[in-house]
């Protein structure tokens, strides 16, 4: 059971459209607010507001979606982008979408003795003169937590909300 509360702040997803090459000039000039400056960055940057998400679109047919607050919002933003690209004449079907990272703010509703945690767990890194938080890596997982004295934290590396919940449970069981 998760006593802590969490809120997803950012979902990073990769998007692959198969067998297509995008004309980035065409995309940038037809998507409202899109920017393409090839001397600065080799892709189109594009932000949507309903749902909120940002995209990096590449000529290879690949894109990154960042800034969505949930997987569902990211999927909806990708669906909207796909429709806009189809309206521009691109013959693309359903893209291949993969969640790469979820970032969540966590309130554990209790304080942490970061020095004690650092002494007792090999998976903990704490250098208060460099950074005020403790990095706690989950074993056999890509999930890590930044823990702070006040009892708040940031979960990174999860690919689903289930992984976030599992990580929170492990922190609560391990650190107590």
UniProtKB/TrEMBL annotation:
Any single GO BP term: DNA-templated transcription initiation
Superkingdom, taxonomy of origin: Archaea
Function: General factor that plays a role in the activation of archaeal genes transcribed by RNA polymerase. Binds specifically to the TATA box promoter element which lies close to the position of transcription initiation.
Record flagged with keyword Secreted: no
Recorded family membership: Belongs to the TBP family.
MF terms (GO), sorted A to Z: DNA binding; DNA-binding transcription factor activity
Gene3D superfamilies: TATA-Binding Protein
UniProt KW Aminoacyl-tRNA synthetase keyword: no
A Pfam family: TBP
Protein name: TATA-box-binding protein
HAMAP family attached to this UniProt entry: TATA_bind_prot_arch
CDD domains: TBP_TLF
UniProt source species: candidate division MSBL1 archaeon SCGC-AAA259I14
Keywords: DNA-binding, Repeat, Transcription, Transcription regulation
Positions of Sequence repeats: 99-175
